[in-house]
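We treat protein structure as text, and this decision shapes the records that our systems exchange. The tokens are whole numbers drawn from a learned vocabulary of local backbone shapes. Below, we set out a record of this kind in full and without editing:
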Amino acid sequence: MTGGAVDLDLRQRNRPAHAVSSAIPRASRRGRLGYRLTVSVDLHKFTYIKGDQQVPAAVREALAPRYSVVPFRRTRTCRRTWLDTFDWRLHRAGLTLESVTGRGPAELVLSGTAGERITAAANGTRWPALAEALPSGPLRDRLEGLTEFRALLPAAKAASTVSEFRLCNDDGKTVAWLTVEQLHAATPAAADLPPRLSVTPVRGYQGQAERIAQCLAAQPGLRPEGVPALDAVLATGGLAPGEYTNKVDAELSATMPARLALAAVLLRLLDTLEANVWGTVRDVDTEFLHDLRVSVRRTRTALKLGAGLLPDGLAGQYQPAFKWLGDLTTPTRDLDVHLLTFAAGAAELTSARPDDLAPFHRYLTQRRAVEQARLARALRSARFTALITAWRGALDGLTAPQQGPDAAQAAAKIIGRAHRRVLRQGRSITADSPPEDLHDLRKRCKELRYALEFFASLYDPAAHRRAVRELKGLQDCLGTYQDCQVQQEEIRVIATEMLTAGDVAATALLAMGDLASHIGQRERRARGEFASRFASFASRPARHRFQALVAGAGS
């Protein structure tokens, strides 16, 4: 089928301007050839602002006498559930995924702003679910690369009442299909959602559909509209898609008191930490724990680097508590890394088969279940609740001191000092330096990276991105080196534990040794790359760019 759809939004006069859907509609009719008319492109969207007529009557008035509106089938109702990852990866990619349930089996519909549309049977999928749990096919293939380790969650729900009409010309021939949809948000709505009208051309009548669109557009009660259905449903609850991010996006000004700037950063980190507690406790996907853990790390760095900006004793009071929280997350996250990279590691084996690692995988899975349960208990504990409540209260109660640096001055001092520490420690590392020296440098790089993130809003975005990119090259090298060391040591410890338990085959131990050997090769490559990575980061042009960045805060 060629052609597209015309979407119309109708609302009563003076109602709040919540729009409905640009999600690609579908009208279906099976004829002698058995084809289904499927919308591929939205042509026009309108808002109907007259409140004295019903939807079909309004369309009849607009199209008469050239076209007639004829009911086609009985009104039907379905349930629409919009799905996305917690960090809105589909929305950011311009995609919308729905689970639509009517009288028949539930159907998954993936649509894009450019007209992309893929459908698949839901096959009883329960949410949340990873993309790999979906039925195999084009829809799953499209989603797996986008969502990666993130689960698909219900983002919004609504009941949909749909009526269909034929749009006929003077000869009584159907030239287009009119679909009228009324959405009812599942949560209490602050305002009624206006109905959506979509006009879908019949094959060979694209020109007449265009004329219908032009006719409707000329009506004084219609105006252009184009807010997606998901946005409209979320808006009824005061929400919007894409709200969550794990970035430190606190908006600072160069002249604001440094204490208040640091408080804003710490509050933003606390918001992110709390937003990820429920997903970590329920073990929805591994990225909830990752984002929670990063928020804890950033908080500990902010308390360390900015201690002098806070009231006396405040940083020292909370540093042990956040260390406890950070240590609590370490075992589960380390096991997540093992399991997430397991398939890639098994594929690299040379003297063993991937199946030989099955006992190792089973051990990791069982051990992770134990550690995850321990973590969940701690995050439900009175100790954790008291920490978060007291910390938010302390931050909310901060006031600007009578004297002290502004945000730009504090940022320059904190970032400059962190940068000098990285340069000093990096220059002291030689080919004979022990692994501990590189590990310590990795921590200093992380502190510098976090400091840059805290004060990002004070700097030129392009210069800031380049500074972060140059630092990240060094960080990645050091991170790979450290991660490989940790994984090799854990494999050795686990192999000993499995051998002591006496329930492991020799082939599994040999395969684990083979896996550790390949990890060791990556470790040695990373160690060999360090000198060139650091030389690039510490070069004179890079240092001058960094110094210019820090000096330009707020300019």
